[in-house]
UniProtKB/TrEMBL annotation:
Comp. bias intervals (Basic and acidic residues): 1-14
CDD domains associated with the record: CGS_like
Signal peptide (from-to): none
Keyword Cytoplasm belongs to the record: no
Cofactor(s) it depends on: pyridoxal 5'-phosphate
Designated name of the protein: Cystathionine gamma-synthase
Enzyme Commission (EC) number: 2.5.1.48
């Protein structure tokens, strides 16, 4: 955990607790260590000099989990595959935003997901996963991890607790359940996983198999501003930092934040696999963290106007926008219990794939591209792009329609986006 005794890791002033958006400007960085530069410089170095040979030996002992009495609590700077000043400041701030003990950053969102799952699961164990997931994650769990003896059992993201428990029983019949992996809201259908129910199921599994599975949540769609999975009982929260936290469609990165116990396993495997993030991208993310709250809030306001327009359009079927979920329904109750924002990414249904393609090809303001969470509005047809690798029958079971379109609303004037949709939908 970050050390509160250092002045540049101060979390309160005069008894007042500082908010994350304020801390993103300075937490974890001391200008005195960098010629009084207001912003951290980019440390483009592969390795770091040790003051003494004894220091180098101690740092490596700590990193490899072989610490001896008198060794420092955390390793000093050694080698940029393990740590780097830009990486350390970024990880400090990410952990602060999520209320985590610590964080680790990776070369991509999929690097974060794969390293976390392989660090927390083991051969012979079972991952209990919600579905749908991002297409790359779905393929990783279903097609790749079985090659290493890690099996999976799925449950629909919108499952009731009794359905989740039945899936847990099926998973325990196959082996030790090591991880409960969820993504909520789901990409791209905006289904919601009940995280409180997952915690209760994890406790039931613990009572039956003697060990509680780790709960891992991909929080890319709403977090860290709109949802706090660690406060809801998760052990690790995953981000594709490429999306909202990066926010400018100019970098690729991922992160995992959570308890020290879980992160020791994840960070250790990152060191061996080399899935760490480079210093320059860390520096770019520090820039982005300063504005993530206002960007996500502005995009969410625009998304509501766009969703309301689409809901009333005669050529549009279902609009899968979280803000339309009503209390008293299963999804509405889960949403209001665990989320504080409807976000700005959602899906809507047109008649079929051809109608979707005609509409997409006619757009003039929005960008026809995969990814999400940028300052510009991005729109795509997931069935033929991001989720192409998912079995068509599985996509159908997950609630995909042939005409499903995903939109990630940016920070443009929403009236301009609505005008673009208006003319494009004439072609649908």
């Amino acid at each position: 955990m970050s050390k509160p005794d250092k002045p540049y890791r101060k979390r309160e002033v005069g008894g007042h607790t500082l908010s994350p958006e304020t801390q993103m400007m300075s937490y974890g960085y001391d200008p005195k260590l960098s010629e009084m530069s207001i912003k951290p410089p980019i440390f483009l170095t592969s390795t770091f000099a040790f003051a003494t040979a004894e220091d180098g030996a101690a740092f490596f002992r700590v990193t490899l989990g072989q610490a001896e009495e008198g060794d420092p609590e955390s390793a000093g700077l050694m080698y940029s595959r393990f740590n780097n000043p830009n990486m350390e400041v970024l990880e400090d701030r990410l952990a602060l935003y999520d209320g985590a003990d610590e964080a680790a950053v990776f070369s991509s969102g999929m690097a974060a997901i794969s390293t976390t799952l392989m660090g927390l699961a083991h051969s012979g164990s079972v991952i209990l996963q919600s579905t749908p997931l991002y297409g790359g994650t779905e393929s990783l769990i279903r097609k790749f991890l079985p090659n290493y003896g890690i099996q999976s059992v799925d449950f629909f993201a919108g499952a009731r607790e009794d359905e989740l428990q039945a899936a847990a029983e099926a998973a325990m019949a196959k082996g030790e359940v090591s991880v409960i992996y969820t993504e909520t809201p789901t990409n791209p259908t905006n289904d919601l996983v009940d995280l409180a129910a997952c915690r209760r199921i994890a406790d039931i599994i613990r009572d039956k198999q003697g060990k509680r599975p780790w709960i891992v949540v991909d929080n890319t769609f709403l977090g860290p501003v709109g949802q706090a999975p660690l406060a809801l009982g998760a052990d690790v929260v995953i981000y594709s930092l490429t999306k909202y936290i990066g926010g400018h469609s100019d970098l690729i990165a991922g992160s995992a934040s959570g308890s020290s116990e879980a992160m020791a396993l994840v960070r250790g495997l990152r060191g061996y696999l080399g899935t760490n993030l480079d210093a320059h991208t860390c520096w770019m993310l520090l820039r982005s963290l300063e504005t993530v709250k206002i960007r996500m809030e502005a995009a969410a306001l625009g998304a509501r106007k766009v969703a309301e327009y689409l809901r009333d359009h005669p050529k549009v079927g279902r609009v899968r926008y979280l803000g339309f979920m009503e209390k008293g329904t299963r999804d509405g109750d889960v949403f209001h219990a665990q989320s504080t924002s409807a976000g700005s990414t959602f899906a809507f249904d047109l008649a079929d794939e051809k109608a979707a393609f005609r509409m997409l090809n006619a757009l003039q303001v929005m960008k026809l591209a995969v990814s999400l969470g940028g300052t510009e509005t991005l729109i795509c047809h997931p069935g033929s792009t991001t989720h192409r690798g998912v079995d068509p029958e599985l996509r159908k079971r997950q609630g995909f329609s042939d005409g499903l379109v995903r939109i990630s609303v940016g920070i443009e004037n929403p009236d301009d986006l609505i005008a673009d949709l208006e003319q494009a939908l004439q072609h649908a």
